[in-house]
Automatic annotation (TrEMBL):
Native source organism of the sequence: Zalophus californianus
UniProt keyword list: Cell cycle, Cell division, Centromere, Chromosome, DNA-binding, Kinetochore, Mitosis, Nucleus
Designated name of the protein: Centromere protein W
UniProt-listed GO biological process terms: cell division; chromosome segregation; kinetochore assembly; mitotic cell cycle
Cellular location(s): Chromosome, Centromere, Kinetochore; Nucleus
GO cellular component, one term: nucleoplasm
One Gene Ontology molecular-function label: protein heterodimerization activity
Keyword Lipid biosynthesis: no
Similarity annotation: Belongs to the CENP-W/WIP1 family.
Functional description taken from the UniProt entry: Component of the CENPA-NAC (nucleosome-associated) complex, a complex that plays a central role in assembly of kinetochore proteins, mitotic progression and chromosome segregation. The CENPA-NAC complex recruits the CENPA-CAD (nucleosome distal) complex and may be involved in incorporation of newly synthesized CENPA into centromeres. Part of a nucleosome-associated complex that binds specifically to histone H3-containing nucleosomes at the centromere, as opposed to nucleosomes containing CENPA.
Residue ranges that the Swiss-Prot or TrEMBL entry lists as coiled coil: none
Assembly, per entry: Heterodimer with CENPT; this dimer coassembles with CENPS-CENPX heterodimers at centromeres to form the tetrameric CENP-T-W-S-X complex, which is a subcomplex of the large constitutive centromere-associated network (CCAN, also known as the interphase centromere complex or ICEN). Interacts with NPM1.
Gene transcribed to yield this protein: CENPW
PANTHER family in alphabetical order: CENTROMERE PROTEIN W
Length: 88
C-alpha cells in the first residue's frame, strides 16, 4: 500500500489565549486601567464570541443575497446589526 502524497491543509489551532500580548496592548492603550487576573481572558473570550457572531451574521447576509462569497458589504451590514443589538 502506498502512502498518500497529499498534505493536510489543517492548521494548528492554539488552545491558549495570547495573555502577554493582551496585557501589553491594555497597558499601552489604557495605562491607568487595572484588570483582575482573569480580566484579559474575559476580554479575549468576548472578542472571539463577537467574531463568531459576525461570521454567522455575514454568512446569512450573503445567503440572503444569493451570493456564494462573503463580501465586505455583508460584513459591514452584519456589524451594524450586531452593534445595534448590543447597545439597545
Amino acid at each position: 500500500m502506498a502512502f498518500s502524497t497529499t498534505v493536510s491543509q489543517r492548521k494548528h489551532i492554539k488552545r491558549k489565549a495570547p495573555r502577554g500580548f493582551l496585557k501589553h496592548v491594555f497597558k499601552r492603550q489604557k495605562p491607568h486601567l487595572r484588570l483582575e487576573t482573569s480580566g484579559d481572558l474575559l476580554v479575549h473570550l468576548n472578542c472571539l464570541l463577537f467574531v463568531r457572531r459576525l461570521a454567522e451574521e455575514s454568512r446569512m447576509n450573503a445567503f440572503e443575497s444569493k451570493c456564494g462569497v462573503i463580501k465586505k458589504e455583508h460584513v459591514q451590514a452584519a456589524a451594524k446589526v450586531i452593534l445595534k443589538k448590543s447597545r439597545g
